[in-house]
Design a protein that fits this description.
With 286 residues, the chain is α+β, with helices and mostly antiparallel strands. The chain is 26% helix and 23% strand. The chain contains 7 helices and 12 strands. The strands form 3 sheets. A 6-stranded antiparallel beta sheet has the order 1-7-8-5-6-10. It has a 4-stranded antiparallel beta sheet with strand order 2-3-4-9. A hairpin with a 4-residue loop joins strand 5 and strand 6. The longest helix has 27 residues. The chain is elongated and about 55 Å long. The chain starts with a helix and ends in a 5-residue tail after the last strand. The chain binds a DNA duplex (14 and 14 nucleotides) through loops.
Length: 286
DNA sequence: TTCTTTGTTCCGGA
DNA sequence: GTCCGGAACAAAGA
């Protein structure tokens, strides 16, 4: 699942290949993403020159000279790769492809003047992209409601405590709320609570500040490590088309129901919180 | 056929 | 009105 670190790595990788490049044409194989692509999506992109790329939460933004931009969300299975057919160069830009690419899910192909094709592949089509005018930069509905970035200074223990004491919800629900902190998904919340020895079923207003300090520290550490790891694993993907990557995510608790805890003798339990799979060790997460 | 998966929105109960 | 959890939704694969 593409989470914040994956999007950050994607941004960095694409930046190298897209900035200052001009779009020659766009081929849309399937416009039915999570939100149907506008009919003029391709024609709007044509001849646009890319200025820079940014990330907000799990959204990737591609900015054009002149100020218009596209907003992208990868959903559950969306990813990008770059292909330079002339020299058979293949670059996996999206961090986590383990399986062979099924071309039938190549929904959008952007042909760039620099010879690269930027390809968007999304098996379940929960991802989306939208074209926006410059004037929407400060009023974009997807961005306007988001809380602080988890890696920003604004996301600290005092901030979290002030919100936690006002609410009567589970700590996991608090962290999953994008208005509280934006960009943490299910996997990283599970992992961060495990590292911090905090039970996801605890009420957020019952957790003392000491614990919150540890939690904040771990969230930042896990995200940073993951970004670093993603950055280095990307290199292994600069291969000829078809070569598989070997990157494996090493989760401490996520998806380990009924297995032995990596920290103690406990067994990892699985419950649902906000309809999401939640994993924790009953012994070390008090 | 049914279940799982994520992020967001909507709805109803307390 | 406010707070909270559950359902629904998007699509595909097991």
């Amino acid at each position: 699942m593409p989470e914040l670190p994956e999007v950050e790595v994607l941004k960095k990788t694409l930046t190298k290949f897209l900035v200052n490049s001009t779009i020659k044409k766009v081929r849309i194989n399937n416009a039915s993403l999570r939100y149907k692509l506008a009919n003029n999506f391709g024609s709007k992109l044509r001849y646009k020159k890319i200025k820079n790329l940014t990330r907000r939460s799990k959204y990737l933004l591609i900015h054009f000279f002149g100020g218009d931009y596209i907003l992208i969300h990868l959903g559950m299975t969306g990813f990008f790769y770059l292909l330079k057919p002339k020299d058979k160069k293949f670059i996996n830009a999206s961090f986590y492809i383990n399986k062979k690419i099924n071309k039938k899910h190549n929904h959008i192909i952007v042909y760039l003047k620099n010879g690269y094709n930027l390809i968007y592949n999304d098996i379940r089509r929960f991802g989306f992209m939208k074209y926006y005018k410059k004037s929407t930069r400060k009023s974009n509905n997807f961005l306007i409601k988001l809380g602080p970035e988890p890696l920003s200074k604004k996301f600290n223990a005092s901030y979290l405590e002030s919100l936690a004491k006002k609410r009567n919800i589970l700590i996991k629900s608090l962290l999953m709320n994008q208005k509280i902190v934006s960009g943490l998904g299910n996997i990283y919340v599970n992992e961060a609570l495990y590292y911090s020895k905090i039970n996801p079923l605890l009420l957020c207003n019952k957790i003392d500040k000491k614990k919150l300090i540890v939690l904040i520290k771990n969230i930042k550490k896990i995200l940073k490590t993951s970004i670093k790891f993603g950055g280095s694993s990307i290199k292994n993907y600069i291969n000829i088309a078809g070569n598989k990557g070997s990157f494996q995510q090493k989760f401490k608790v996520y998806n380990r129901a009924n297995l032995k805890c990596k920290n103690c003798e406990g067994i990892i339990k699985k419950v649902k919180i906000l309809q999401r799979a939640t994993f924790y060790c009953n012994t070390c997460q008090k």
